[in-house]
Amino acid sequence: MMAGFLDERAGLGGKVAAVVGGGFGIGAAISTALAEAGVDLAICDIDAAAMEETAQAARALGRTVTTCHADATDEAALDAYYDRLAKDFGRLDILVNVAGGTRRRAFMEASRAAIADDIQRNYGYVVQSVQRAVPLIRRSGDGGSIVSFTTIEAHRGAAGFSVYAGAKAATTNFTRAMAVELGKEKIRLNCIAPDTTPSRGNINGLPPEYGEAFMRLPDAVKPQGMAMYIPRGEQPPPEALADAVLFLASDLARFVSGTTLHVDGGTMAAAGFLDWPFGDGFVPVPLAGTLERMYRDGDG
Question: What are the catalytic residues?
Answer without folding.
Answer: 164
